[in-house]
Amino acid sequence: MKRKILSFQMIFALLSVNLIPVASYADELSQSGPSAIEDGSTTESTESSSTEETSTSTTDSSTSGSETSTTESSDTGTTDSSVAPQPPTVSPEPEQPVETAPVAPAAPEEEVTVDQVPVVTDNGLTVQPNQEISVVKNEPTENFIRRIGEKARAVGQKNDLYASVMIAQAILETGAGGSQLSQQPYHNLFGIKGEYKGESVVFSTQEDDGSGNLYTIDAAFKQYPGYKESFEDYAKLMKEGIDSNPEIYSGTWKKNAVTYQEATKSLTGVYATDTSYDQKLNAFIEEYNLTEYDKAQPSQTASGMIIADTHPDSDFEDYTGETFSGSEAYAEGNCTQYVYNRVVQLGGSVETMMGNGMDWGATGKANGYEVTNKPKAGTAVSFQPGVAGADGTYGHVAFVEHVYEDGSILISEMNAAGLGVVSFRVIDQNTANTLAYVTPK
Predict the structure, then answer these.
(1) How far apart are CA 410 and CA 403, in angstroms?
(2) Domain match, 180 and 233 both
(3) Where a domain ends, among 239, 263, 294?
């Protein structure tokens, strides 16, 4: 009997030993499910936290996904735990480590300082942090060049100076004509202080104390009647210098500067403290081909238009660019305002309400002016819409500078080559005889 009892005890012991692994494995299943879910949930939560710094919408999406994943996994864990565990029939293979691509640590965000941001100005000038300078063409600057180019050419030829350099300086100093000081009624293109024939205007300006520190003061700047006078006064400064040094700007003279680059270099540190002043001027000269204005004569367009303020065939004194009382009744820079100012400049007068260009003939008759179809120098000539390039809606008006022997006429006009730009054209005899000529009073 003892042997049998021992046998039964041994059998029971053996069975107990075999059951222990089964219970342990079941416990592992019921425990590993939720544990794995929690690990995954923790990972997603960490990612959501990281994403939260850059995008709120992304964080919401990640959080929603995390909640969904947690719910589904919890349900699965509960289902598994309700099923009675069964011993495995096949020994499970050991888990193999899964190779994952290493995750590079996020690069720290670089702090951007003001010195690292490119400086871009309204006139298309860009200065990179490494001091690389470039210019991109834009229409406002091109229009500004058309308005002042011929004035610069005339002054440059007369004073042995580079018109290209003067134009580039005017662009840089005024923001392509955008500064208040450069506009009517001040016309100061170069920021020159003082008085011009007793006229000045006070503006606040920043000054350097010599150590790089800026402070603001009120200063008087010269006020000119027009851009022509501004160029002439600037040329006088270049040629005569200052009291303590009459030749301080002699490096800009053509006889001393073989190229415009030498002229701009001589201005750097003298006219302006900006160490890259010459590079900026050169960039404008090159991008807009301003060396065309260094030539003695203006070029003629394919249509025969000469963009200039003066013409050798004109019977009258040069146009000064001065604006007169009453001209504000007409659109600035347009043909009507130009003819009004040109007539008043030469001592005549016309109404301030002559209408659009095409209306001057009819309005002139209604107001008692002599109006005829016979060309006459010194008159306002009215074009109907579409005639000789006139606007298709408003027509055009110009000033007759000269009548040639063959019956053709030389006219000066504004806004044919661009807003505010003065140009000359010759109108053939046949067309000239169809136009209306209004004699000023």
Answers:
(1) 6
(2) yes
(3) 294
Same domain for 229 and 205, yes or no, is: yes
- 371-424 confidence digits (pLDDT tens): 999 999 999 999 999 999 999 999 999 999 999 999 999 999 999 988 888 999
Distance CA 385, CA 435 (A): 11
3-state SS, 264-285, equals HHHHECCCECCCCHHHHHHHHH
What domain range includes position 357?
306-439
354, two tokens: 């002559």
| 203 is a domain residue | yes
pLDDT tens track for 18-66: 444 443 333 333 333 333 333 333 333 333 333 333 333 333 333 333 3
- Among residues 242, 263, 294, the one where a domain terminates is 294
Please check whether residues 286 and 153 belong to one and the same domain: yes
Q: Which two tokens stand for residue 321?
A: 């660019």
Lookup result for tokens 């929690």? 38
DSSP for 215-259, please give it: EEEEEEEE--SSHHHHHHHHHHHHHH-BTTBTTTTGGGBTTT-SS
Whole-number pLDDT of residue 206: 78
How many CB atoms neighbour CB 145 within 10 A? Answer: 24
- Looking at the domain assignment, is residue 340 inside a domain? yes
Q: Could you give the count of Cα atoms lying within 13 Å of 88 in the half-sphere of its Cβ?
A: 10
Instruction: State residue 138 phi and psi, 5-degree precision.
Output: -145, 155
> Which residue type, as a one-letter code, is found at position 124?
G
Is the distance from CB of 125 to CB of 140 less than 8 angstroms? no
Q: What is the pLDDT of residues 213-266, one digit of tens each?
A: 788 889 999 999 989 899 999 999 999 999 999 999 999 999 999 999 999 999
Please indicate, yes or no, whether the overall pTM of this predicted structure exceeds 0.70.
no
Task: Tell me the CATH number at 356.
Answer: 3.90.1720.10
Task: For residue 417, give both structure tokens.
Answer: 């080559």
Residues 58 and 169 in one domain: no
- Say if residue 277 is in the same domain as residue 316: no
